[in-house]
Specification:
mainly alpha; Arc Repressor Mutant, subunit A; two-stranded antiparallel ribbon
Length: 190
């Protein structure tokens, strides 16, 4: 048998191991004896062909997770910043769907068409339903950790420096009142 080929039990072990990274349970579920599962599971993890196979599977799973995250973030961004005016022409009429930008097909939740008669003239009113911009902007901000439910204690003036904007401060004034700029908190000692 080729050195890097897996036996059917090793392949099953790898599949089971990737579920929760428990070698003993993976060995049992792969069909090895319960009495020797701990040793076999540990032994399998030391074999080069098993390590190589697991490494490939883990890398692939990580790549897929990154792709999923990137797609979700793109979708959140598109929903938060979708420009509904791209669905209309210069006269304000709704464009045919085949002329909509690609992103609109994923974002528009529906189109309501209403027929009315105004001053004996037929009028077609079309409304576009899109996801909540506010909610999707908030979701994007949460992912980017822009919001926090925790309130930081800024009673120490040095902690408040993150609010400091250099272009509005006179360079001759200390950042912290009473501080002479020597890093000693205003006590004047060298």
């Amino acid at each position: 048998m080729a050195m890097n080929k897996l036996t059917p039990k090793q392949r099953k072990f790898c599949l089971e191991y990737l579920k929760d990274f428990n070698a003993t349970r993976a060995a049992v579920d792969a069909g090895y004896s319960k009495r020797s599962a701990k040793e076999i599971g540990s032994g399998n993890l030391t074999k080069h062909n098993v390590q190589e196979h697991l490494s490939k599977k883990i890398n692939k799973a990580e790549q897929m997770a990154e792709i999923d995250i990137a797609l979700i973030l793109k979708h959140l961004y598109d929903m938060a910043f979708f420009d509904v005016t791209t669905l209309y022409n210069e006269e304000g009429d709704l464009l045919p769907m085949k002329e909509w930008p690609e992103v609109a097909g994923r974002l528009v939740a529906g189109v309501d068409i209403e027929y009315r008669e105004i001053a004996k003239e037929a009028v077609v009113v079309k409304r576009i339903k899109i996801p909540s911009r506010e909610r999707n902007t908030e979701n994007l901000g949460r992912y980017l950790a822009m919001f926090t439910d925790k309130i930081k204690d800024v009673s120490d003036p040095k902690e408040m420096l993150h609010f400091y904007v250099p272009q509005f401060r006179d360079e001759s004034e200390p950042i912290i009142p009473g501080d002479n700029g020597d890093g000693e908190g205003g006590n004047g000692k060298p």
